[in-house]
# Entry
Amino acid sequence: MKKTVVIFIFIISCIFNLLGNNKIDRKALVLRHNIVLTKAEALSPLSVGNGHFCSTVDVTGMQTFPEFYQQGIPLSIMSEWGWHSFPNVDNYKLFDTFDFLQASDKRVPYPMKSSSGYEFLRANPHQTGLALVGLEKIGGKLSLDDLEETVQTLNLWEGLLDSRFKMSGEVVEVTTLCHPYMDRLAYKLKSNLFSSNELGVRIRFPFPSATFSKDPASLENDELHLSEIVRSSEQSWVIKHQVNDFVYYCRIQTSAKVTLQEVDSHDFLLKNLNEDEFTLLIDFLQEDPGDDFLDDFYATLNVNRIAWSNFWMSGGAVDLSESKDLRWKELERRIVLSQYLTAIQSRQKYPPQETGLTCNSWYGKFHLEMHWWHSVHFALWNRSAYLKKTLDWYENIYNVAKSYTVQQGYKGVRWPKMIGPDGIESPSKVGPLLVWQQPHLIFYCELLYRENQSLEFVDKYSKLIEATADFMFDYANWDSVRKCYVLGPPIISAREGNSGTFRKNINPTFELAYWSWGLKKANDWRERRGRKRNSDWDRMAEQMAPWPIVDNVYVEAESVLEKDGGHPTQLAAYGFLPESSFLNKEVMRKTLIHVMEHWDWKDTWGWDYPLMAMTAVRLNEPELAIDALLMDVSKNTYLPNGHNYQTPELPLYLPGNGGLLSVVAMMCAGWDGCNIKNPGFPKNGEWNVKWEGLKPIF
# Structure
């Protein structure tokens, strides 16, 4: 009996060691990074959301001052289904943009040619904002100067935003939250200014902006869309909004008997509240909700609290608070806020756009090469369901992607680059020639296989993996002189630094490594189904061209005039990916040091810093990993709201947040075969790292 007890205690001890030693007080961890603002900050509006629906608000807890935030991060309400297209009256087709490029022995069409439909096809479909909900001064205009003693707190543990300020000497309090499962915003408002009819709530329905970046909506073009009240009572209204074929409904419910006044064609005002305190529920629906019913604000509040508590108590956690290195708190802040930001807008059924559901970038379209940076961390932080959710969409666009591949004369499926929900490639001077998104699907499935090794799971995704590998094999070419397989020309590497010379580019380092890894893994999936390995795939994987080296460091690609800037993607060959037979570790170490010492940081992007850290961790250079993650440069800025700032036109960048979470998981849990505890943190006595619920990467 004693022996059994001892063994049991030993097993429990081992489990706790694997989890990262001591149990973490998760609530304290999260709450110490609550966001508190005492003034309006154009670059730090705060957001509430549920992963597929998100609202970004100003210092009032609503969208009262959208004009002020235009200079930073625009205010919006967005949903994963909020996609609009203008009518294609000129019948533009992707074929109109095809430019035929020589690829080995074939002429391959790519949608890269400027044509009359080029910009239309890039801009459609696009994501749009659904509404703006803000406070309104009755009989006057409200300005930021009217607000005094402003304090706004985002309670991360509860997903709850409390805003308090004074106006005309009177206190105004607004509580804002989002329903965890419905496209619903819930508010509790309190002030004497409501009962005295000096303050109301304004709801405006915008027109799609269809612009390249930032604000998804416009308050112009009133004559081109329709907003109408289709149902009303003393406490409930339904408004139908229609722009071309895009139709949705907004249901408004209040706890008070009020008046809803139509101020303008798309502008509605709740006034005559007659109460100091009332609640407001606003739902956005794709279909008419039918007969109105009154729901309860407090029921929404309670289910929201439960959902957020469950989120924080499940998945991974990292506590750095016992560290001596003064950088611990900023790193921990970024980790916690990145979890929150990806939770409120990256748990969609689609891969998120690079600015999620906060605002637009690239017309709201998502980039499949960025899906890795958005979502792989979910699997490493024990939240794999959110990564798996997006794989259904790959199945949905399979036939569209297949038809594109057939047009190009290749076998299998070539996954597109810049797209909307329909999966149709957007014309671009760069995107169509990228290929590093191809093996991503294999990477995702391999991560998910770790948790579900059933034959049913393998069968479900084998079709996609097989088609992906078929294209990869058909795309590469055998060089009979060099006796190896080559990639390109034409090709643009993940770095995109060689986009101007795509007709002669060949053999980007990262893509060579990823091709080899992906084909081997695809063959592993064949074996899991009881099938023979594809000898062609294995042969190609083992005989890819060697990674190009110049001056004893890995470079972007062969035949490229190298410059020290842009994405340092040659590092991804060992960092993003595990060790392979092509790797020379000392050359990679020199490459990492070269990047850290000579790179032009103005020409980088937010995910480059986690990428550098990944390579540093694998090379057992934890000091460099920390230095990379916390480098004090513009593109590695994390704003008070946690967003990764890039430029005025790209003020937030979720691949930076997702990449940070992925590399932090590596820094703690390591990778397959790693025997170093917390391999990404220096062993100098300055870092005391507690973690739990994280998983190793490959």
The two ends are 39 Å apart (CA to CA).
